[in-house]
Amino acid sequence: MTKPAINIDKPLVSVVVPSYNHEDYIEECILAIVNQTYKNIELIVIDDGSTDHSREILERLQQQYGFTLICQENQGVSKTMNRAISLSGGKYITGSASDDVMMPDKIEKQVGFMEENPAYDLIFGKVHLIDEKSKIIPGKVIHKPFPDPVKEIPFELLIDNDIIPAPSMMFRKSAWEKCGGYNENTILEDFDLWLKIAYTGKIVYVNDYFACYRWHGKNVSTAILKMYTETWRLVVGWKDKMAPDVARRILARRDSYNFFALSGIYKKESLKYLKINHSYWDMYMLKNYLKGFVKLIFYRRRKKTVWR
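and the corresponding structure tokens:
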């Protein structure tokens, strides 16, 4: 394959892909990256001990497109991402799960914005939700988009509700270095990094679609308890770094939402977040507790799938 000419005046972007057991989707993921309209990129793919045919597919694609491919025993997402980024040479870092798909002009648009707005450390936007056949799922969203064309996201807004779809982001490598990389001791490595970047720098939302997030129904409801328990642990860990009034509000709202989220399936665990002695109350909390009580009383546990 003849590689297109690269404009060396444009900053290098490092694209990292942690690959694990997505043989049905990995080729589409890689092709979306190598066919970006922005050409000054380096692609680093680490297969994290896949047990399906992902490695064979990647080896074939690597021969064709010449990207960096590393195969390792399973280490988990955080360690894999840190390894890939430590090997990268780009000014900017972006990435994709091995079952997600970048929009063709994602990198071009984001680099253009970041170069024109050097005060920002991380940019994100919207994602389409797609099914196993790469068809957009109508009416489904991960996070409700902001109406603003551009919106700065303060730390207090982000810690109140993780609003960043990971496939849509790009950040400066210097921000990752300043934050010490991904936390390898949490299952919410993305949220943890976003919080650290928001606390020490600036995050911006741009109202545009940057990627497609795949929902293929293989994620079971047992992930819910781990996710919300770990979210609570992360938020509590920031308590002493927030102003007292902000901490009271954030923790009270998180209590109410965790109660609502867990009350249908994990009734006993949800009661840990049912508190009436909060020093802060608002309508958001009241609605969460009321809806949680309804689920607690009337919901009967059944097998169910959730977003990963």
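(Above: one complete record from the training split.) The two ends are 36 Å apart (CA to CA).
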